[in-house]
Amino acid sequence: MKNTISHRVADFLKNFPPFNELTNAELELISEEITIIYKEKESIVFSGKEPGHSHFYVIHKGAVSLTKTESNTIVDMCDEGDIFGLRPLMANENYELEAKAHEESILYAIPFSVFKPVALSNNAIGDFLIESFASNTRNPYSKNHRGKLFVDSNINANPDTKNSVSDLKLSDLQPVRYSKKIVSCDTTTSAKKAAEIMSEKKVGAILVVHDKLPVGIITDKDLRNKIVTGEYPITASAASIMTAPIITYPTTLTITQAQMAMMKSNISHLCLTEDGTVNTKAVGILSKHDVMVALGHNPAVLIKAIKRAKKTKQIKSIRKSVMHLLKGYLDQNIPMTLISKIISELNDACIKQIIEISLSKIEEKPPVKFAWLSLGSQGRSEQMLHTDQDSALIFEDVSEEDLPKTTHYFLNLAKAITKRLNTIGYDYCPAEMMASSPQWCLSLSEWKKTTSHWIINPGIDEVLLAAIFFDYNAVYGDNTLSHKLSDHIFYTVKKYPIFFVHLAKGALQNPSPTGFFRQFLVEQDGAHKDSFDVKNRALRPLTDAARVLILSHSIKSINNTAERFEKLAELEPNNKDVYLACSYASKALLKFRTKQGLRHNDSGRFINLKTLSKEEKIKLKRTFKTVKAIQDLVTLRFQLKTI
Amino acid sequence: MFNFFKKTPADLPDYWKAYEKLFLQKTPDQLDEVRFVVLDTETTGFDYENDRVLCIGAIELINKNIPIKNGFEIYIHQEVYDKETAKIHGILKKGVIPRLTELEALKQFLAYLGNSIIIAHHAIFDITMLNKALERNGLPKLKNRYLDTSTLYKKTIIKSNLLYKKESYSLDDLADNFSISKKDRHTAMGDSYITAILFLKIVQKLKAKKEITLKYLFK
Question: Any chain A CB within 8 A of the CB of B159?
Answer without folding.
Answer: no
